[in-house]
Design brief:
The complex is a heterodimer of chains A (about 160) and B (about 425).
Chain A lengths: L2 H37 L7 H22 L15 H36 L11 H31 L1
Helix pairs in contact in A: 1-2, 1-4, 2-4, 3-4
Chain B lengths: L2 H17 L4 H16 L2 H16 L6 H14 L2 H13 L5 H14 L5 H18 L4 H12 L9 H10 L3 H7 L1 H21 L12 H7 L1 H18 L5 H18 L5 H35 L1 H12 L3 H18 L2 H18 L4 H17 L5 H9 L5 H24 L2 H9 L2
Helix pairs in contact in B: 1-2, 1-15, 2-3, 2-15, 3-15, 4-14, 4-15, 5-6, 5-13, 6-7, 6-8, 6-11, 7-8, 7-20, 8-20, 8-21, 9-18, 10-22, 11-21, 13-14, 15-18, 16-18, 17-18, 17-19, 18-19, 19-21
The chains are: A mainly alpha (about 160), B mainly alpha (about 425).
Chain lengths: ~160, ~425
């Protein structure tokens, strides 16, 4: 396992635990809100704000590790019919294109985060600055880019050995 | 080049990339971005990426998905499925093919707390397949039953497919959920008839289990209490207007954890596994939804879906011809692709046509679910079949597909019944506000 692969997988695994914690947090917040509203007549203020912003952690935290587990659905039916060398070339190209794509998304989301920081954009009810959450989306996409780079290096080195 | 042609080329390129093995979410995002940039400007395309991803990832409505997935995962890891199966076994096991019938009953029961067909198939497969093997059930019947029964997971509420359909078409998730109940019961009954007929013709397929006493039957009911509590809390609360869908899902997940803790059936390891399963499924589904949003923005600016809808209108064809064509596309598409992904990609194209043809959108949601169920068990990419293959290692794929065939007939019969009598679907939703 190359150093890039180790690093990428390590980061992805930790981000995935952040996502897992965020799911638990979302569940707790939602329940506190429902119980507060139903039993005490006092809903938790800003539930929608908190839950929505935590969504940034839930999804962007988990997309890189899902790639490590090869969990992003793809159709393998047809490529399995192709000869091995062609399959390797295709796998390289797909990893490369995916890497560039998510690199661009990560870069654009950082620009978006910078924009929200400059205008001081806040959440609707609790007035929480949204910049850190936009940064989290960018970090998640960057981690996915890194995992795709590691995949690409893995496929290339296997191809060269053969 | 006209917008419609650009849209059609975009779809062709996207399908091409998918066939070459690019993950579905990546292909949709890439083509959506490039197409939108072509139709507007590069800056427009780049802005769509950041804006689209940020707002989809921080959408309150979308979080209903991880929470419902979490509820199903917790139910799986805390052994609720085993207890539901035990009850069904005690009540139905003694008739010929009874264990298979019990499996369908238990699948329907587990579907009431789990929104995914693969999770239902996997859960009930691990519980029911060893029992049927012990009683020397025909392997094709046993594996086919679990694969088909699993599909009830996305029809009987909660249902991830109906949630995704509801989010994308802006329909009430509560109404869609309740619309799935009667069709779910009808399909369970059709699956049961299938098994009974097969075992009547050839009793050696599934020998009856020993009879249980009335006391044993009544005692076994305790195993379904928690399933009932969760179902009525989550779906009842949603329909009575106590909760929003996201809240219902949160309460359901917390309820499943509480039941696991009280029963002492949910270990720390099980909890961690449930969380990891949830992040994986959620990331996969939500990334596809976010990319579908980017792709659909491109399609909207291209004008293709609207163009197709008015073209269909101008054809002056019977609405049922349109429906039949769309059904055909879903059945064929579902054979080659993960059913949920196929729904997300296609719904923005077909939904306007269906509305234009005068069909009820809630009814169509249920029909789509059954079409996707069909896709989930047909070769070559019947996802449930592969799930069962993963559990029953000694049964080959060919045998499972053979076992599926009678259930496919039941699914088609279900489709015909619901198309002729749409009120079966629409009756319950008409009762709620």
């Amino acid at each position: 396992m190359s150093i890039i692969e180790k690093t990428a997988h390590f980061i992805a695994r930790w981000l995935n635990w952040v996502a897992a914690l965020a799911i638990v947090a979302v569940m707790v917040i939602v329940c506190v809100n429902v119980l507060g509203r139903g039993i005490f007549g006092a809903p938790l203020k800003g539930t929608v704000d908190m839950v929505s912003l935590l969504g940034a952690f839930v999804i962007s935290g988990a997309i890189a590790y899902t790639q490590v587990l090869k969990g992003h659905i793809r159709i393998t039916l047809f490529i399995e019919l192709l000869p091995h060398p062609l399959r390797t070339v295709l796998a390289c190209l797909i990893d490369f294109v995916g890497m560039v794509l998510f690199g661009i998304i990560s870069w654009q989301t950082i620009l978006f985060a910078k924009g929200t920081h400059e205008i001081g954009e806040l959440s609707e009810v609790l007035k929480i600055p949204i910049t850190p959450f936009a940064v989290m989306v960018s970090v998640g996409c960057m981690a996915l880019t890194l995992v795709l780079l590691a995949d690409l290096i893995g496929v290339l080195s296997k191809g060269v050995k053969k | 080049m006209s917008g419609g042609i650009v849209g059609a080329c975009g779809i062709a390129i996207m399908v091409g990339l998918m066939v070459l093995g690019m993950p579905i979410a990546f292909a949709m995002t890439l083509v959506g971005f490039l197409g939108f940039a072509y139709m507007t400007s590069l800056d427009g395309g780049l802005f769509l990426l950041s804006d689209g991803f940020y707002f989809q990832f921080t959408s309150y409505t979308m979080l209903v998905i991880p929470l419902f997935v979490f509820m199903g995962e917790i139910a799986f890891h805390s052994g609720i499925s085993k207890r539901i199966y035990r009850t069904a076994h005690a009540w139905l096991g003694f008739i010929p093919g009874g264990l298979a019938v019990a499996t369908i009953g238990a699948c329907a029961g587990f579907a009431a707390i789990c929104g995914s067909s693969t999770a239902t198939a996997a859960t009930m497969g691990t519980v029911a397949l060893p029992e049927m093997k012990k009683r020397q059930y025909n392997p094709a019947l046993a594996s086919g039953t679990v694969a088909a029964g699993g599909t009830l997971g996305i029809l009987i509420p909660p249902s991830i497919v109906l949630i995704v359909y509801g989010i994308q078409t802006e329909l009430s998730i509560g109404k869609l959920f309740i619309a799935g109940i009667l069709p779910g019961i009808i399909l369970s009954a059709l699956f049961t008839f299938c098994i009974l007929i097969m075992c009547y013709i050839k009793p050696s397929l599934g020998s009856p289990a020993p009879k249980t006493t009335l006391k044993q039957k009544i005692n076994s009911l305790s195993g379904t209490v928690e399933m009932m509590i969760l179902f009525f809390l989550v779906i009842g609360g949603l329909l009575l207007g106590w909760f929003t869908p996201t809240e219902a899902a949160g309460i359901g997940a917390a309820g499943a954890i509480a039941i696991g803790a009280v029963r002492r059936s949910l270990s720390w390891e099980g909890f961690k596994k449930a969380l990891l399963g949830t992040t994986r499924t959620s990331a996969m589904v939500l990334l596809i939804i976010a990319s579908a949003m980017i792709f659909s923005r491109f399609l909207t600016v291209s004008g293709l879906p609207q163009g197709l809808a008015s073209w269909v209108e101008s054809l002056d064809a019977s609405p049922y011809v349109v429906l039949l064509c769309i059904m055909g596309i879903y059945i064929i598409g579902g054979c080659f692709m993960d059913p949920l992904s196929f729904l997300i990609i296609t719904i923005n194209i077909f939904f306007p046509m269906i509305i234009e043809a005068g069909f009820d959108p809630i009814w169509f949601g249920v029909i789509i679910v059954i079409l996707l169920e069909t896709g989930a068990i047909t070769p070559p990419v019947g996802i449930n079949v592969y799930v069962i293959k993963g559990i029953a290692l000694d049964v080959d794929l060919h045998t499972i597909f053979k076992g599926i065939f009678p259930f496919l007939t039941a699914l088609f019969l279900g489709l015909i019944i619901l198309t002729i009598f749409p009120d079966i679907v629409l009756f319950l939703p008409s009762l709620v506000r």
